[in-house]
Amino acid sequence: MPLALPVFLAFLPVLWVLSTWGMKVTWEARHLSPRPRYGLATIIGSTLREVGSIWVLVWWHLTGRRHARVIEETSPDEPLVICLHGYMQNATNMHGVRRSLARAGIRSTSLPLGLPGRSLDVYTAHLERRLQPFRGRPLRFVCHSMGGIVLRQLLAEHPGWAAHVDAVVTIASPHEGTAAVKFGWLPETRALRFGSAFMRRLPPLSAFVPPERILSVGSPHDATVFPARTTHAGGATHLDFPGMGHSGLLVWSPVLRSITDWLKKVPMLAGVSDRS
User: Fold this and answer.
1) pLDDT, tens digit, for every residue of 102-147?
2) What's the topology of domain 65-270?
3) What secondary structure letter does DSSP report for 113?
4) Where are the domains of the chain?
5) Model-level pTM greater than 0.85?
6) Residue 191, class by beta-carbon neighbours within 10 Å (0-12 exposed, 13-18 middle, 19+ buried)?
7) 265 FRET partner, CA 20 to 30 A, in 116, 141, 174, 198?
8) Across-strand partners of 134?
């Protein structure tokens, strides 16, 4: 019994990832034509990478990567990168992104969105309060999954913040919702369902930020946010990373380097902090 429990816990991520793959393949077979085809080697390889990534995120959390919330001091005129995590996650998940940014000399902080099981209105209000200390300075956002949708709702409900947004990166954000949400028992999952009324009403990110200053990142093998097109922010530059899962996009160095390189190349928008 003492050994059985750790073994069971170790295999839980495997069971979870395989179950999401089952949902993805089934949904796409019913709703997409032509439907994507995945070889067994692709599914196994993506599953193993995703399980490894999940354990990395768990490790960051357990080893106290709470310093991900600490704000690095920057000049008021220098853009600060705000990292926003996804559903059922916390600020430690953005440790890999922040570490990559730090190596390039880019200052950042990671803001927690609070406990799950609440409406997106509550997440948005929480984020708006957390952002108050940064009002009046240029901001860049790197958002994973639901974090990108919370940012969109913030800009829709408080359009004055758009004056402070210099650039945005979304990582596996379900811009049209995700078909992985089948039942939607919780308020946020109902809103994030693929094609939901909420997602149809929410203005696109490009309504607030110029498309050339938006980068969306996704993977055709993400079994949490699908179909793949939902990770595309309309009109923006998009990067796909085949073989990566939803968590892997936060962990694997080629993804993090690409995000960092893009942010380094995007020049600061003149007068962004003065447009409020």
Assistant:
1) 999 999 999 999 888 888 999 999 999 999 999 888 999 999 999 9
2) Rossmann fold (3.40.50)
3) -
4) 65-270
5) yes
6) buried
7) 174
8) none
